[in-house]
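User: I'm curious what two different proteins look like when written out as structure tokens. Can you demonstrate?

Assistant: Sure. I'll show them one after the other, since each token string lines up with its own sequence. Here's the first protein:
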Amino acid sequence: MKLIVSHSQLRGITAAPPSKSHTHRAFILAALADGTSVVSSPLFGEDTNATLDAVEALGAEVSRTPENDTVTIRGGKLRPSAKIIDCKNSGTSIRILAGVAAQLAGTTSLTGDASLCSRPMKPLLDAFTELGVTVTSRDGCAPFSVTGPVSGAAVHIRGDISSQFISALLIGAPLSKNELSVHLTTLLTSRPYVEMTIAAMKEHGVSVVTTEDGFFVPKNQKYSPADARVGGDYSSAAFLFAAGALTGDVIVTNLYPKDPQGDKMFIDLLESLGAGVNRTSSGEVRVTKGPMHGADVNLADAPDLFPIAAVLATQCEGTTRLFGAAHLRFKESDRIKSTAMFLQSMGADITETEDGCIVNGPCALSGTNVTTFGDHRIMMAAAVAGLIADGDTVIDDAECCAVSYPNFVAAMQALGAHMRFA
């Protein structure tokens, strides 16, 4: 289905959708705890549903009650799945669940769609091998099988490809009889996502120690049941914030100011660029249109912001350089290339670099046909760009936003966006 977006002015208040990252972790950790945990206000999206199906395949008892906005999970007795686990398009699912499966005595096979099967897994699979796990894969990508359990107590892994690799090792570690030392061989990118993992593990009674070159998980720890309430998603809220900064006045609720999500830095970025920003201690953020100027922006810890940050940059006076996000080339699409392509087609002065882009603004954008490559963040960024473009912007595969923000279009329409499906 295509989405047609026309020039619009947005005004109003809307709630941020539940956090996809927190939902993944809440489902998986509840499945690892010996007892019953209730997850309230989770994100019911394609990626998180893939995680929920997977923990059920591994032996957790799952009760879904979307009408009550809860999921009840009884875990603690996981075993290898008799069927291949299909993680669809979810990188978080396949990587963290692989870390769990590697700790189980027996063989578990995991796969995904064509996009997921092209994304890198080799650093994590090599780490499993170092830990004594037998791995069978297709050139270091999915589909793959792991036969556990882990026997080693130390592992070395790159930190600059995906923070999900690190989260996978940490979350799986308490299932082993051994301690685990994770030694990073490169700088860790997207560190806030690992901090989010550690905070979630702590809620379930497991501690992780940060070391000079990585992390250490002491032995003799077990996950305890714990109820969790999933807060709003700063990654998805970024598209709402940007719409306010570019077109009018938007208030976003359901955000926790103390949440460890790295993408909340987008609010600081908007403020530094010149947009009007007002935040409250209760978690409301109001963003209004204002004259914005270019800046150098390091996105190493918040790479998912790149597409929408690039859209913002097209309306900034002067030059904006986005950098530090080379690992974006291994997402649902090559997000650096995908972003540059759609903004160039709309008339932006944007140059792709190895780890980001350079944008000279302000740019007059024109509506065009946009290819999303099935990438939800490209789809939503292009939709926001369409709000300030002359003429219609026609975006393909509009349903792909269901991965992280199923109600994106409806929320934008409620704020006054001229969007319609075709």
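Here's a second, unrelated protein for contrast:
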Amino acid sequence: MPSALPRVHAEFLERVRNAVASDERFNALLIGGSYIHGGLDPHSDLDFVIIVEDDSYAEVMASRMDFAGALADLVSAFTGEHVGEPRLLICLYGPPLLHVDLKFVLASDLDHQIEQRAVLFARDPAAIERRVQAGRVEWPNLPSEWFEARAWIWLHYAATKLARGELYEAIGMLGFFREQVLGPLLCRRAGRNQRGVRRVEALGLDEEGKMAATVARHDPGSVRDAIAAAIDSYLDLRADDPGVKPTRGMPGLLHAFIDDAGPSRRGAAAARLT
């Protein structure tokens, strides 16, 4: 955990700790993310986990937006279904602006954790600490087969948008591909948990610039080159697991599609008009 927090983070942490301690529906307050992994800076989020008493959980889930608002200076908040976590409330506070995650869980949820969080407050500190320490900690890293099943479909999608002249859509898919495939595989190569493209630059995970080559300009030739670079980068990273079964016909089929298709004239004209 950090030896010293930025002032804004430290003040907000105390605000949350006091709010949890004064509400009998809550059993404990934990924190994860950069606070425990290192690298917390003025641009970092605060990732809180609030342990709720079992008999209060339904009430808390129904009124959690009120709890977030009572912390003062709430700009906006929404729930985390888009990341498969409906227990999560994603909040923006300010000024100064600060991203804060509030996840409301039961003590039994600590039996399976993605990271071993620090305890900031607990009504029974020893009991909560024992539960945190005893819980199974496992980051949801994905196997090679998961990437192989998706990589070529996603890259083909990018290629079809290039062929149609929908360059923004193709560029967006390349960003998605970096987040979902190349970033996690770069982390795997470095012996780290698969965390998308988080801190790729700071950790020096792309020193050869292979992933950087997948960043395209709004130009058909640039997008074509970026897709080719994404193919090459994926093949290089896939080779770290010689046991993965390659998809039939790939990458040859995709290269042939890109060579044969090219940006359609109608699509290119439409792109110029938008």
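A detail about the second structure: The chain has two domains: 7-137, 144-273.
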